[in-house]
Amino acid sequence: MARIVSLSRHHQEDHRHKNIGWLRASVLGANDGLLSTASLLTGVAAGRASHEQILLAGAAALVAGAFAMAAGEYVSVSSQADTQRADLEIERRELKKSPDKELLELRDIYMARGLDEALAQQVAAQLMQRDALAAHARDELGLTEMATARPGEAALASAASFVCGALFPVLIAAFVLHSEVLPALYTTTILLLVILGAVAAKAGGASMIKGALRVLFWGALSMVSTTLIGYLLGHAVI
Questions:
Q1: C-alpha span between 125 and 157 (Å, rounded)
Q2: What share of the chain is helix, strand, coil (3-state, %, to 5)?
Q3: In whole angstroms, what is the distance from residue 56 CA to residue 66 CA?
Q4: Is 36:61 a contact under the CB 8 Å cutoff?
Q5: Which of 44, 146, 164, 196 has a CA-to-CA distance to 103 between 20 and 30 Å?
Q6: How far is CA 3 from CA 14, 118, 144, 181, in A?
Q7: In a 3-state reduction of DSSP, which class is residue 238?
């Protein structure tokens, strides 16, 4: 028995899914910041805009995009948090109203997972005695600490990562010669998209090559499309 306890203390598995929450918000924000700002600036640059106009467009895109990402993530995750609180309140009322039925409900969940009736009954009773609401939140509703919605954290992560991504195109617009802005945007953005896709895939335990290629395909498509639109409209107007 002591050997089993000792082994359990030393055998700690590092699963990837615990990173999903912050990884999703961070990767989405950085990718969106980089790609949306770079695509906007390639379109503006292809449309014969001046150096000052390109820089102004980049700065505006960075600020507006960061607030948009933060607001969107906050509203989305807040709705998720409201739903979680509502579900927990329902469980709290049911536990107070019909504890015996809730015990049977928890027992049936464990039986469906493979425990025999007697053991399932014993496990359900012990868990409910310790913390009934936590047991039902975890095993009936699927609400764990990792899955708990945190609107503030999600909003800050999205905004900060968006700024980190958008900063590179804006710096190019600010410091690269006007005649070199377009090729510099393409080169830098494609390189960063490949790195971002590979790192995100690595953190999630997926193929780095596939992750990089996915981001590269959609990034290149976006930039080419906005460049073409900017070129056509810019030449048509001018």
A1: 40
A2: 85, 0, 15
A3: 16
A4: yes
A5: 146
A6: 22, 28, 30, 64
A7: coil
